Amino acid sequence: MCTYGLLFLIFGFGFGATQNAADVGSLTTSVAGLEQLLATEYLLIQNLDDYANALEKKLLVIRRVATILREENEKAQRNSEYYLSIPTNIFSLVRRSQMDWVYLDIFMKRSAGEEQIKVLQDHWIHLPKTDDFNEAVNAISRLQDTYDLKAADLAKGVINGKKYDTKLSSLDCFALGSELFNQNDFINAGYWLYTALQLYEEDVMTRLHTLSQSTIMELYAETLLRQGRHQDSLLVMNAILVLPSDVPKNSLIIKKKADLELHIKTYNPQPVRHPKTEPTVYQRCCRGDFSSRSSKFYCIYNTTTTAFLKLAPLKMEVISLDPYMVVFHDIMSDVEITTLQDMARPHLQRATVYNHARKRSEAVAGRTSKFAWFYDHTNAVTKRVNKRIEDMTGLDLVGSEMLQVMNYGLGGHYSTHYDFFNVSTENDIVSMQGDRKATVLFYLTDVDQGGATAFPNLETAIFPKKGTAVMWYNLNNRFEGDHKTLHSGCPVLVGSKWVTNKWIRERNQIFKLPCYKE
Fold it and tell me: Which CATH number fits domain 149-267: 3.40.1050.10, 3.30.70.2470, 1.25.40.10, 3.30.70.120?
């Protein structure tokens, strides 16, 4: 599968790129989208304050009425016979009893904060759905797997060895552990549930969620059992049963404990070992193990690709000759970057991957980001960027794909793939303009950690640096897909990754590229 976008609809390739509305609105796949979620949360917190104020106002009225009534009643109780001998007191008592309590009944039944409740309900549509939460859990799990991160470190705000001003609550850890348990990832679920236990303190939020220590322990015991750690699970069950007496004993746990004891006594199961696996080449690329350049490659001022470069040479670093791959430095200005980001924000939608069998684009777990397409002549910036790409590559952009601007969100990544389509020349997707000869990828932001473009077959990784760009050929000299160009966008660990890319088609390069002899 290869990337496929709005270009093919506009150029009339007729594949009907459809995608699920829920995929388009996925909240976690773009930092730009999450900014709106922060704004919504701010509004709802203000609304919650208003709701509390409405409740306090009602409570204040009730307390004041109670004070007035109590003062009069205590006055009467001190000498009831004298009090009731005065006709006005009797009238007042009868009136209070006949009227005040009726109106108090109405006032007490009247809901406070109805307006604030409506505001919350109106914004419900803007809040994350179950799919968004599950995607967020998967993103955290992906980051742990790619960068070998420990649950306890993440909970303390230590991300890949660096301390940040953040932390996870027991409730956060329990939610992660529960969802991973539901996904049958019992190893990682166990780490998160254990961390939730370590952090647990009864507070207003755990009471709101009715989350007790015993609830966490029960799920942790079941997780250990699913891992094949019978003895450890039994220890946790015993610990549940000796919790303070005010914690009700779960009869189901008592039965499970008895069944487990019988199983252990009968079969004497040994703990299942879960050896640590060695990192893949892809993971090592993402972690920076291959980020240093080989000494045989070099940096130059490119003055030869086009005539214009004799006046304004480009800083170019040669990364590979087979396939041809170079990095350009200081290739885009801050103003151009800001313009592209501002253009994209209102139009970002869930990134998709082209499915050859179904002949349509689909949102997949292997690509989590949002993108927007722009015509080459949208404005002065897009014209300038495309002209610069011609200077960088020496290639003809006529018939090539539009500029694509992308923003990655929580754990945003693009799993290993090729940019070339690798289909028959009669296939609609390549019949008009050919396959993707070259890819140009601009980095619009620095990324604090992660987010590299990894090439596992080359044991090479390019880490994002604002204003740089990497360019490589996807096709070899015979214009066949070069499998050495297998690459991926590593998950973004910390930061907001913005990129702009251009895929250059082969058909119009007939007078731009020389004929090679094999």
Answer: 1.25.40.10
Amino acid identity of 80?
S
Give tens-digit pLDDT for 420-451: 987 777 687 888 899 999 999 999 999 999 99
Beta bridge partners of 326: 318, 471
CB atoms within 10 A of CB 29: 32
Top CATH class, 7-23+289-509: mainly beta
In three-state secondary structure terms, 373 is strand
pLDDT score, position 399: 92
**pLDDT tens-digit profile of 450-505?**
999 999 999 999 999 999 999 999 999 888 999 999 999 999 999 999 999 999 99
Tokens of 21: 């509305």
User: Are the CB atoms for 405 and 500 separated by under 8 Å?
Assistant: yes
Q: Which two tokens stand for residue 249?
A: 């004993």
- Going through 110-235 in order, the beta strands assigned E by DSSP cover 158-159, 162-163
Cα–Cα distances in angstroms (integers) from residue 423 to residues 143, 355, 429, 472, in the given order: 33, 12, 8, 20
- Report how far Cα 332 is from the mean position of its chain's Cα atoms: 27
Q: Which residues contact 197 (CB under 8 A, 6 or more apart)?
A: 170, 213, 216, 217, 220
Question: What is the pTM (predicted TM-score) of this model?
Answer: 0.85
